[in-house]
């Protein structure tokens, strides 16, 4: 599927030139099916899955860079920046990383050595091509008193696996901006845990430059006040902020409906209102927010299809299934006129 554009449709990234980059998450399929849309409206790309550990090193010392290389080449061909996603995560990391060939329990030093080797290999390959890395992803617990999520990284290497990841990445590419990235970043309880973690890293002179606010939001949650407070709270740390995985689900958490063939008029209007409010905030805090990335580009493909309700279509973006601008797009553009 391709999209036809004309001079009557403003380019989204040009509308926010000088304020922040406009990005989209892509994969090997969407850089083909959404090519025209991507090259017209976006000036930054993130690999949806192609740079995650399991894709790049499925077996020890067996690196499979082909798909990631193609995405980076696509970005270079069209003069786009690239955000690297992600080096250390509790998900999508192969089991071999945490296992000894001998069968004995994995030890801290071996795990950190494997982490260092992976980071050096990946980051050096794309050195100078990637302007920012999500170094550590989703390491904070969602609830309870514990700050860090239980994971094999934490269990084996201890809490300083996070600092080590940033140190290894910075050594491999001193010019890349390094981010801690997480979801529910605007929920007050989790916000304070993220703040506490990043503050502790800064106090230890760990080379961290920013916080990634994923931005998986919906028609009602989180509140604008909570998003504003999160932005201001993180900015107090002197952190650069990126919106890294933005989408606005037309279904609220408690909505379990299935069978809709298209979003309702109420959904479309409310989604447009929310997007306009979000971009008003991003513009207001553009001194701190330097990149805004959607977790996809158009409604024909989104990870939210079938999640969390199987068999359900979602329409979370500002471009529809035919790659044409929705009301949300025009309401955002109105902010720049």
Q: What would you note in describing this structure?
A:
The chain has 337 residues and is α/β, with parallel strands linked by helices. It is built from twelve helices and nine strands. Strands 1-2-3-4-5-6-8-9 form an eight-stranded parallel beta barrel, surrounded by five helices. Strand 8 (240-249), helix 11 and strand 9 form a beta-alpha-beta unit. Helix 6 (108-125) runs parallel beside helix 8 and helix 11 (265-284) runs parallel beside helix 12. The longest helix is centred in the C-terminal third of the chain and has 20 residues, at 265-284. The radius of gyration is 20 Å and the shape is globular.
Tell the overall outline.
globular
Q: Please report the total strand number as a whole number.
A: 9
User: What structural category do the secondary elements indicate?
Assistant: alpha/beta
Largest sheet composition: 8 strands, parallel, barrel
Strand order of the largest sheet: 1-2-3-4-5-6-8-9
Distance from N terminus to C terminus (CA atoms, Å) equals 30 Å
Radius of gyration: 20 Å
Strand residue content: 15-25%
Q: How many helical elements?
A: 12
Give the rounded overall mean pLDDT.
96
- Helix/strand order: HEHHEHHEHEHHEHEEHEHEH
Q: Which regions have little confidence, pLDDT < 50, spanning 5+ residues?
A: none
Summarize the amount of helix as a percent range.
Answer: 25-40%
Keywords:
globular; alpha/beta; 12 helices; 337 residues
Task: Please write out the topology.
Layout: H1 12-15, E1 21-26, H2 30-33, H3 35-41, E2 44-47, H4 53-56, H5 66-77, E3 81-89, H6 108-125, E4 132-137, H7 152-157, H8 161-172, E5 177-182, H9 188-203, E6 210-213, E7 216-218, H10 224-235, E8 240-249, H11 265-284, E9 289-294, H12 327-334
